[in-house]
Amino acid sequence: MLRIIDFMPQSSAGAAATIGEFDLIRRLTDVLGVDHASDRERRALVGIGDDCAVFPGDSAAGLLTADAMVDGVHFRRGEIDWYDLGWKALVSNQSDVAAMGGVPEFALVTLGLPEGFSPVQVESMYRGIRAAAEEFGGEVVGGDVVRSPALFISVSLYGRAAQSSSGEALLLRRDRARAGDRVAVTGPLGGSAGGLRALAEGRTSEDAERLKRAHFSPRAKVDAGRVLAANGVECAIDVSDGLLSDLSRICESSGAAAEIEAGLVPFPAALEREFPTEWLDLALTGGEDYELIVVAPEETFGRMGGNVGGELHVIGDITGPSAIGEPLVAVVDLDGSRFYADRAGWDHFRG
Amino acid sequence: MLRIIDFMPQSSAGAAATIGEFDLIRRLTDVLGVDHASDRERRALVGIGDDCAVFPGDSAAGLLTADAMVDGVHFRRGEIDWYDLGWKALVSNQSDVAAMGGVPEFALVTLGLPEGFSPVQVESMYRGIRAAAEEFGGEVVGGDVVRSPALFISVSLYGRAAQSSSGEALLLRRDRARAGDRVAVTGPLGGSAGGLRALAEGRTSEDAERLKRAHFSPRAKVDAGRVLAANGVECAIDVSDGLLSDLSRICESSGAAAEIEAGLVPFPAALEREFPTEWLDLALTGGEDYELIVVAPEETFGRMGGNVGGELHVIGDITGPSAIGEPLVAVVDLDGSRFYADRAGWDHFRG
Fold first, then answer.
1. Angle between helices A21-31 and A119-136 (to 10 degrees)
2. How far apart are the C-alpha atoms of A175 and A130, rounded to whole Å?
3. A21-25+44-163: which CATH topology?
4. Which of A64, A80, A313, B94 has its CB 3.0 to 4.6 Å from that of B220, i.e. a possible disulfide?
5. A287–B11 C-beta distance less than 8 A
6. Percent of chain B residues topping a pLDDT of 90
7. What ipTM, to 2 d.p.?
8. A283 contacts A189 by C-beta, under 8 angstroms
9. Do residues A294 and A228 touch, judged by C-beta distance below 8 A?
10. How far from each other are the two terminal CA atoms of chain B, in whole angstroms?
11. Which one-letter DSSP state was computed for residue A10?
12. In what order do the strands lie in the sheet with A235-238?
């Protein structure tokens, strides 16, 4: 079995002539470690330059996810380090696989490059992609490099679901929340949004820098997802849009209503120090922390003890089935008052 | 098992608010036939709206490929019908799977949409994607919709390799051309490039329109690829960049040199009529016909008889191993003269 990197050459109408694609591919292939692969596990079946990446078949259930980042929309070219951009583009996909309890296996990276890009920057980006692949899984086996007026990175990721000893797929789904379940999260929330805010406001304190790192270098909770799935948890989602929004999604998919206590939501200490009046809003609604929201019966959490592949903070409960016209998520605020959220947002519910 | 469409919602920093993504997703989901799936085979395991698409594991080798199309680079928004754009975006990926001898199984479609797009147009595009999926395989199981200054469609496709009766993967690879093999193609070449030229030159004859259809509505040779792989063929590539360029790729990967006879290359009759002086150049170098170039020993072709899932035209031979500094592909022109090509191009060799 060969380890492969397969950047499919684009049609001649495309990027090749203009951006020196073939040279670029060679350089990126280097960055992704093809030449240094002899001492690593070799997994894919067909090597560089064929029409498709080929990988061994698997009796486990497969997972497929895709996520794209566009310059000026999801990031600003001048504000993010290219290495971080690559890291984050893959992590956002790995996080989707983690949120299903699966393990990332193979990634395809499609890159849209404007004229006049710097190959050094793009290489740096691929180093970030490679680092995330080494950290959380998902070897880059192919993709496409095209010319584009706007820089974009479109990643798709193939993963393998966790399996029971009898070979059954163990999946963390969004539609498995049941009345009486507890709601937990795998780590502090709001750091990424705090970092983005700090960046926008030009903050440079030590805490601000810490939050920026949370924004630029999120981690995919692959280990936690796998452990949770193996221990009978059936319901989770990753925090990509924000706790209230993503928990609303679970409730919507499950036909359930949830209540969480704001005072139980974990957050980075730096967030409260840097944003003394806004930290809770950031923790409740900030996106891209890529922690998991986990929903399971009390006894399932109990059975696992502390062994959940990381932290686990219970923050609330599934209170019952959802009702038409009723908000999906209730929040008990720090002062004991209540406000409500649904998937469309939360501000207009706040009283 | 459920059939699924899973357009992962993008982060709140992204497209949702601006382009009404959720409504759009619902509409596209309709277009892709989720609501009408009850009477069709249901294959994927996890339904709409989870973090990943989930599909049953497969003991056959998996194939992964990705291809993107960007407005102003690979197409011009005003010139291509949205339906055709969707069709072509998926076909270019299906063709990569066909060129490995595999069957498309699951597709992810990531769409970058500028502000002010028309949902009607985008729906039309998804109808084109759906039609191609129904024609050549590769159910759309997910993707991403993001805002982008430039319209782009980034598709990735998962496929299954053909298998021998003993379960071994039967792959059409680029690096399997051997001296003495014959070179064949599965159908007429140059039609797509002729259509593009006709479009650029504002031609509107019946032949010009025929060629434009070849450009906008190519077909993926999935059936041919599967039949070829099942019959012992081991080497193929699809014509995405042009016969000479793509055959050079086979030669480069295989360390082989090829010779083809221009007079044997099949082309659409409309091409010769519409471009009486340029038809051969277009047939030899035009891209995006998505026919397969097939390389195999004479006896392999012989064994198959006419049963190759379509046409098969022998156009030349693998003449020997490649030599450093020597061109990879020699062409015997209509007048018996020779010219040469390599992957970088061919013009500069001519004459």
1. 40
2. 33
3. 60s Ribosomal Protein L30; Chain: A; (3.30.1330)
4. B94
5. yes
6. 56
7. 0.81
8. yes
9. yes
10. 60
11. P
12. A235-238, A292-296, A182-185, A313-321, A256-261, A329-332, A338-341
Computed over every residue of chain B, the mean pLDDT equals 83
A38-61 average pLDDT score: 53
In angstroms, the separation between the Cα of residue A224 and the nearest Cα of chain B is 15
The C-alpha atoms of residue B210 and residue A44 are separated, in whole angstroms, by 41
What distance in Å separates residue A128's CA from the closest CA in chain B? 20
Sign of the torsion angle spanned by Cα atoms A145, B112, B108, A164: positive
> What pLDDT sits at residue B11?
32
Across the interface, of B52, B57, B112, the residue whose CB is closest to A59 is B57
Selected for mutation to probe chain B from A96, A156, A173, A233 (highest B CB count within 10 Å) is A156
Which of A6-15, A249-258, B205-214 is predicted most confidently?
B205-214
Q: Residue B83 in 3-state DSSP?
A: helix
**Residues in contact with A102: Cβ distance below 8 Å, sequence separation at least 6, in sequence order:** A63, A159, A160, A161, A162, A171, A225, A226, A229, B52
Residues B143, B144, B145, B149, CA torsion sign: negative
pLDDT band at B19 (very low <50, low <70, confident <90, very high): very low
- pLDDT given for residue A36 in this prediction: 35
Token pair belonging to A12: 């001649």
User: Cα separation of B203 and B195, whole Å?
Assistant: 9
Residues 6 or more apart from A33 whose CB is under 8 A from it? A40, A130
Sequence-separated (6 or more) residues with CB below 8 Å from residue A307: A227
CB-nearest to A70 from B8, B148, B241 is: B148
Report the topology of domain B172-341.
Phosphoribosyl-aminoimidazole Synthetase; Chain A, domain 2 (3.90.650)
Q: Confidence band (pLDDT; 50, 70, 90) for A100? A: very high
What ranges do the domains of chain A cover? 21-25+44-163, 172-341
Q: How far is A89 from chain B (nearest CA, A)?
A: 12
pTM of the predicted structure, to 2 decimals: 0.84
Element (H, E) at B33: none
Q: Closest by alpha carbon to B90, among B127, B38, B52?
A: B127
Q: Is B230 helix (H, G, I), strand (E, B) or coil?
A: helix
Count of beta carbons in the 10 Å neighbourhood of residue B323: 10
Domains B21-25+44-163 and B172-341 share a fold: no
Q: State the Cα–Cα distance between residues A322 and A315, nearest whole angstrom.
A: 19
Residue A269 to residue B96: CA distance in whole angstroms: 50
Span of A171-175, B115-119, B124-128, B330-334 with lowest mean pLDDT:
B115-119
Torsion of CA B23, B24, B28, B31, to 10 degrees: 70
Residue A244, φ and ψ in degrees, nearest 5: -65, -40
B64 interaction partners in chain A (CB closer than 8 Å):
52-55, 106, 108, 141-142, 158
User: How buried is residue B103: exposed, middle or buried, by Cβ count under 10 Å (0-12/13-18/19+)?
Assistant: buried
- Return all residues near A278 (Cβ < 8 A) that are at least 6 apart: A197
Three-state DSSP class for residue A243: helix
